[in-house]
Amino acid sequence: MKDIRICFLGESFINGTGDNNYLGWTGRLCVNLAQQGYKITYYNLGIRRETSRELAHRWQSEVKRRFCLGCQPLVVFSFGTNDTTQQNGRVRVELNESLKNARNILAVAKHNYPVLMISPPPILDDEQNSRTQVLSQYFTELCQELEIPYLDIFTPLLNSSTWMQEIEAGDGAHPDSEGYTELAFLVQNWSAWVDWFKLF
What we know:
The protein is an alpha/beta fold. The protein contains nine helices and seven strands.
């Protein structure tokens, strides 16, 4: 059986912040894969408050340390929420820079590994959600251009009472276990995710 190694890269939503079970959506995905009989090693490389600017500087060295000769690698990215966060009256990373960072990250990653990209999710702040939605639309176009599968989780989670109620009960951004379970379900049933594992 293939030695499948998955690196999940991004911010606090990758990290699973807020989940009292400490699995987040990435852990739940990998539990599901193990139950299906896959041999999985997964690396949660989410860093709270990190923007695409910081991610662009670290992701390659993080991944290289974790993939070995003969293993089957997969890189999953999800970032953007921290880019659209306002700090001192301005967004932390302007739209044009976010797109430049994303292009640089994804183009290099695709050249070296199988890559999947997942949109940033919504939070409780309507104004920030508007900025995140615009960013996600641009990410959609970028991934189409680069031929990288892209999953919009923003729209279904914005319409999810479970997700929105849990982030309201929490810190205004992160859900608890049921919200992350719902996010994991979206990825788990995504055709690009399912099709990738059909290869093994």
